[in-house]
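subagent[fold] <- orchestrator: predict structure for attached chain, return tokens only, no commentary.
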Amino acid sequence: MSDAVRIALIGATGLVGSSVIRQCVGREDLRLTGIARREAALPRGIRMELFVAEPAKWGEVIEAVQPRAIICALGTTWKKAGADEAAFRAVDQDLVLDTARAARELGVERFVHISSVGADPMVKPFYLRVKGEVERELTKLRFNRLDILRPGLLRGTRENDHRPAERFGIAAAPVANLLLHGKYRQYRGIKVDVVARAALALAKRAARGRFVHDNDAIQRAAHTLPQIDYEVI
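subagent[fold] -> orchestrator:
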């Protein structure tokens, strides 16, 4: 474990965060620490710590853990934010950037951020505009390495999710993917486990720079994370 990469996961209880945790079961090359606002059931066999604290204390946790990389899987939905722009920004923008700034000040080298396909600070749709603004501000922080993942529709099961439109979209994604080619490939649905594996693989990379990953690049990154064989006792 001495050579294991220390990774802090912000947003450990969400769809992507939960998958990142599952992908770490049995791994000896990663040392994962979760940071969240509420407790979560951890999968059997996982070796990790989960710190539950208010966001104002997350910087203190990062300072204590001293991770080399952070995976930021923070995010809410328009519905959970009560269709309120300020409430949405409070999580998807303010909380992400406050955490990133604290990490940068504490010497974290690498930052992996889960964004969204279509993120652009200049577009009209509010959701995508906020995502784009966050990407722009993260770039200004000048981490040694910044990876921004822009997945299409995430295919996975959300806890206590009752959004029929999104569930229909996820179910239809395999068929819809066949119709999306060329520049539209980036909008294809993608399994959340693939995104999680890509985030872990990128968090291990030491090459400096800023990298933006669409669906195809996410798939390629996921394939570079070595598979492991383990037995849960």
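orchestrator: received. Logging for downstream: The beta strands are 5-10, 30-36, 48-52, 69-72, 110-114, 145-149, 154-155, 190-191, 209-213. The CA atoms of residues 6 and 126 lie 35 Å apart.
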